[in-house]
C-alpha cells in the first residue's frame, strides 16, 4: 500500500468519524431539546399546582376568618349580657354589705 492510499484511507476514516460525530451531536441536540421541553411542561404543571394550592389556602383562610368573625360577634353579645349581670351582682352585693337591703324580709 502506498502513501497515497494510506492518506485516502485516513481521509475516509476522518470523514466517517466526522459524520458519526455530527450525527451524535444531532442526536444529543434532539434528546436534550425534548428534555428541555419536558422540563418546561413539568415546571408549568408544578407552578399551576402551587397556584391552585395557594388559591385553595386563601379560600380556606377566608372561610375560617368569616366563621371566627361570626363566632366573635355571637360571643360579644353574650359577654355584654354577662358584664351587665356581673355589674348587677356587684351592686347587689354592695347593698347587702352596707345593710341597704333588709335580708330578714327576703326570707
Brief overview:
The chain has helices at residues 3-98, 103-106. It is mostly helical.
| Integer tally of domains | 1
Biggest sheet character: none
The rounded Rg comes to 44 Å
How many helices in DSSP terms? 2
Q: What is the CA-CA span between the terminal residues?
A: 140 Å
- Percent helix: over 70%
Shape descriptor: rod-shaped
Question: What is the tally of beta strands?
Answer: 0
In percent terms, what proportion of residues is strand? Answer: under 5%
Order of helices and strands: HH
Low-confidence stretches: none
Task: Describe the overall structure.
There is one protein chain. This protein is an all-alpha fold and 107 residues long. The protein has one domain. The protein contains two helices and no strands. It has helices at 3-98, 103-106.
Properties at a glance:
107 residues, mainly alpha, 2 helices, 93% helix, rod-shaped
Write the layout of secondary structure elements.
Elements: H1 3-98, H2 103-106
